[in-house]
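Contributing: when you submit paired examples, paste them exactly as shown. First protein:
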Amino acid sequence: MLREVTAIQDKLIEWRRHFHQYPELSFQEKETSAYILSILEDLNEIHIETEMGGTGIIASIEGNGGPEIGIRADMDALPIQETTNLPFQSKYKGVMHACGHDAHTAMLLGVAHLLVKFKTEGTLRGNVTLIFQPAEEAAGKDGLTGAPHIIKSGKLADLKAIIALHVCPWRRLGELQLHSGISMASVDNFRITVEGKGGHGGYPHLTSDPIWISSFVLQGIYGLVSRKINPLNVGTVSIGEIQGGTSPNVIPDKVEITGTIRAYQEDVRTQLKHELYEITKMADAFGGEARLEIEMGEPALRNDEKVVESMISAAQQSKPPFHIVEEPYGMGGEDFSHYTKKFPGAMAFIGCRSEERQYDLHTGNFQIDERVLPLGVAFLLETLKQWWGND
C-alpha cells in the first residue's frame, strides 16, 4: 500500500502546504472548500456534495457492494499567530493551522485519489464516504460544531463504521496511539458572573467587593475535583480567564470567571456541573451574588472496540509496521465524538513529531514531520481493507 501512496507524496505535501498558507477559521472555510472541490472534480467515479454543514464536502465512492465506511477530516484553523517562519507559513495574521487539520485534509484527498484508482481497477470492495468537515475547533451561534451539522444532513445514514486520524506531536514518526472505549474528554465551557456593589478603593467597607468574593469562589473551584470527585474517576475543571475592574482605585460591580469542564464519564460530567452551581452559592454569604452559565460542548470520545481491532491489524500489516501505544489520548476534546455516538467508529493518533523537538498542538510554533502524510494515507487505506476483511 505504501508504494502506491509514495507515488503521490509530492501532491500530499503540495496540498498540505497550500492549506497551511491559507488557513480559515471555523465555518469560514470557503476557499479551503473550493480548493478541495477543484481537486475532487478532476477525479472520475466520485459523487460530490457541497455546502454540507456550511462549507463541508461529502464525497462518495462506490465499490463492489461491501459495507459503507466513512472517513472524516477536519478543515478549520485556529485564531493563533504563527511563529514558525516556514517558507509556507500562514499568510493570514492571527490565523494558523496549529492542530494539523491541514495534514488531515491533505491525507483525505490522498485517500480519495487512490480509492478512485482502486475502483477503476475493480479492486475496491466496499463503499466509502469521505467527509471534509468544517468547524471542529469552535461552535457557531447555535452552540454546535461542524460534526452535528454533517450528521443532521442525513447523508451518512448508510454508514456501518467511521474512522479518523489525528496527527500527534507527542509521538514519533512510525508510532500510532490507539485506545478502545472512552479516549478523550467531554468538553463544556462555563461562565460565572460574580456581582456585588462597587465603589471607591479607599472605602472598601462601603462596597460588596466582587473581587474579594471571587477569591472564595476560586478556592471552591480549585478544590472541587480533589475533594468532590472520586479519585478513580476522570474529570477536571480549569479556569482560563478572569475579568474585573478598570482602575486600581475603583472596586468594580462584577467579576467574570470563565473556564472549561472536562470528564470521561457522563455522571462525572453531570456532577461537576452540579458542584459548580453549589460553589456559586457561597457568594451570598459574602454579600454578593453569582450566576453560572454553561455552554454544552462535545461528548466524550468513545472508540468502538471492533473498529480499533481493525486499526491495530492495519498498523501491524503496514510496511514498515507501526509501533502501537495503547492508552487514552488525554483530556482534550474532539467533535468526532458526535459521530461515534451514532456509528461504530474510532480515531487514532499518528506520530508526527519532528526529529528536532516536540511542537505542541495549539501553539504558534506547531510543526509536523511531513513524512507522516503518506504514512497516514496508507494506514487509512489499510484500515478499510482490514474492516472489509472482517465483515
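Second protein:
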Amino acid sequence: MWLLQSHTGSTYPMAKLFIVRHGQASFGQANYDQLSGLGWQQARWLGEYFAERELNFHRVVAGDLQRQQDTAKGVLEGMAHAGIDVSTHPGLNEYDGEMMYRAFTGQGDQHLHQKRDFKDYWRTFRAAYEAWIDDRLTDVDETWGDFGQRIEDAISHACEGAGRDDAVLVVTSGGVIGSALTQLVEGPQKGAIHFNFQFRNAAFCEVIMGRSARRVLSFNNVPHLDRPGRRHALTHV
C-alpha cells in the first residue's frame, strides 16, 4: 500500500499516476545516458498523444539522469507545454548496472562484454540482477531494499498533494518501473526483472491512486508508436 502513503501518513484521493520510461538512449556507447534522435522523437510523439487526450499534469517529476530529464522535456514539448517545470527527484534514478555487473563478475568493463558477446552479456547481467535481489552480492553501494525504499519515497513525493482526478507524470527507467509494479501487484521480487526487460522506450503505465486501494490500470502502453510509419520506433534499450 506504500504508493498511497504521504510523508504525513495521509492517503491520496483518486488520482492517476502516469509512469513513463525514458526514450531510446545510447546503448553500447561511451555515454549511454543520452537520448538518441529517435529517443527524442518517441518522447515528443508521446507528448502529442497526451495532448490529444487533453491531459494536463498536476506535477511532472523525473530522475536527474539526462535521459530521464530530456524525455520529460520532450513529452512537454509534444504537448506544447515546454514552459512547465520538471521537478527532479534522484529516487527515480535507475539502479547502477555497472555496480551489479562488477560485484557479480569481478570485472569492471561491461561494454567490452557487450561488444564481444551480446547474448552472453545479457545472460550474465540477468544472473547479476537476480543475485542483487537475493542479497547475494557484496561490495554494493545500494541494496535491493534500499532501491525499493528510494522509489517509494520518490513516488510519494510526486503524488503529494494530488487532488481528486489529478494526473501526475513520472519519468524514470525500466528498473524503477519494474520494482514499482512488482510492489503494486504484490508479486515475487524477481518479477521486477521481467517487468524491467519488457518495458519499451517511451512506454507508459497508468496507476489509479485511491483512498483504500491502488491499481495498475494499464501497462507498457505505446499507442503513440503503434501507428503507420512508426514501427521502427518500437524499441527496448
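If you have annotations for the second protein, write them as plain sentences, like these:
Confidence is low (pLDDT under 50) at residues 1-12.
Residues 2-94+144-233 form a domain with the Rossmann fold fold (CATH 3.40.50.1240).
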